[in-house]
Structures
1.
Amino acid sequence: MEITGIILAGGKSSRMGRNKALLQVGDETNIGRIKRLIQTRTDHQILITNDPDSYEFLQMPMYEDEHKEHGPLAGIEVALKHSETPWNLIIACDMPFADMEIARFLCKKVQESGAMAAVPEYNGKRHPLFACYHKDFLPYVVDALEEGEKRMVNVLDQVNAITVTEEDLKDAGWSEAHLKLAFYNMNRPEDYEWVQTQQV
């Protein structure tokens, strides 16, 4: 199962007040950490960003949104267009503790089910920006963007997408404490302060 790891770094970090992808987590940048993690469990890696100059240090293929101001959906569109593998792991740059074993679990689930996407659910919320997608999801994204749709969950509701529940993840052996870290979103200054208290 060949997988492309895709980092989305197209947001404006408005709630953080500064570029959250470039914040220091441990002894590396947040996005550098995520790149290192996805390299351990994916065969190819690409970055989606509208500010490529800020990420040249990563030395990885970069692509910009074709539909500006359309949020993560536009990032997924260009990511799937440029991916050369059927399966694709999408991960947002605000998840410094994203677990790559969970990522592989998601990709295995979607392959076994024959679905087009596997999206985890934790604490009552789906996480479409830490999920596994088949390249066949692309036409639905394109159609949605052309119709002015910006919400990822609305597109997912139109296709054969499976939800990997919190219970599924716990049954597979991950604890509540581990899941809290794995799905932690770093969006505000207080979120970053908490991240800095963790051992990484």
2.
Amino acid sequence: MGDVVLKAELFEQLARVGKALGSGKRLELLDLLSQGPRSVADLAATAGLGLTTASMHLKALREAGLVATTRERTTIRYRLAGNDVAVLFAQLRTVAATHLAEVVAARARYLGTQDGDDTEQIGREELLRRVEAGEAIVLDVRPVPEFATGHIPGAISIPLEELPDRLSELPADVEVVAYCRGAYCVLAHDAVRLLTAHGRRSVRLAEGMLEWRLADQPVTAAS
């Protein structure tokens, strides 16, 4: 029979990870870091946090072993501590959506699909087939820093906020397949809505960069 004190200590250590995950903003930071390494300033700006608050959340994630740091000259860049952290984050979303109706409803409101999805989606295999056949091009609508840390090979980078003014950069005779961070990211939905409103053939990748990486698909980083 095991020592109850030592057993309690063991489970308290396991709980450190759970406690670190017990914040919506920390989960958002993990979502951003699943795209690739980022500086504190970049993470804070994207997540709508002050530098001090972002640093505090990152410290909690680091103390739980979920993120690590790398120094590049005078800049400290945060990254996920391992691919298993990305798997954990993705699985957390799946479990939450499976067992909490509120998660499904909140996601639908955020993506604008509560009255039905108004954007067509395709999977990875169909994306690759259409690109190989010359039927489609791939459009990455994430912010430039995220594109730079890793993107689908051959993708064109046009951040969503720049898309209205840069439509002419996209060939008019092929379909546009837009993608963003992942299945819980609204950017690709909004891109397809915008492109469709301008008479362009467009669909979105059903998932995004997080799922693409977890599926061990090839990733290109900006040089």
3.
Amino acid sequence: MNKPRLALLIGIISISIFPILVKLGYTSGLISAFYRMAIAFVVLLPAVFLFKKFKLPSGKFILLSALCGVLFGSDVAVWNTAIHESTATQASLLTNLSPIWVGIGAYLFYKDNPRINFWIGTLVAFIGMVVIVGIDFFIELKFDKGFLFGILSGVFYSAYLLTAKKVLAEVNVPTFMLINLFASSIFLAIVNALAGEAFYGFSDKAWLVLVIQAIVCQLLAWFMLSFAIQHMRATRVSLSLLSQAFLTGILAWLFINEEINVNMIMGGVVLLFGIAITFIPKPLLPGFKK
């Protein structure tokens, strides 16, 4: 396995525990999002300068890196809210529509027409997602605030991935992460202050969960994923992130006793097969050059 693919795998595993930590409910979704970014920034800041990894980019890329922070902060805040407003399943499914938005965005803004294997893999992966959640889920789907926030989360996520791809072509990962986290922390601090959220007074368990989110789900996960984005197609990375839902289900079964059933196992296999299709170098359909 080459380094970008290994980094992608580590990143996906690291981020898969995040919905479980959010569902513990020790803090609100908004304040959880703020501390995920702020603690990660405080930890990363001395390390970046100690190891001399900060390379000041041009003004354009400082602004784009900051924009990534706002987009990612918006995604996490909206997704956390969607989880609380509906269910983890609905929120995860809707935010994971992001490969579609990434594919469309790559074509419109970067003139990067995704390979036919991407669209085939996306279709197969979504069939897997449908099998995982079951047809009853779609029958009972509520088009409420939770639904809207889930969709919006996927849009923010896609915009982040596409913008990060552009920035990481010119800026190293530690510098990008530092600017990204700083902008995200400031943005989320303002959002929480306007929402009247309390910034302190949490239990010891709550603080432990917030630190784990920052170190594992943010720093480790997104260092790995940023490296993968830097060296791989954004469309391929976004589709690979769908496997997060399957891994989250397995981890929830192992650690918080959530039920796992045949649908989840079968759907997970189909989903992973769909992702694998995008890594096949030759087109699956004749007549396509990409």
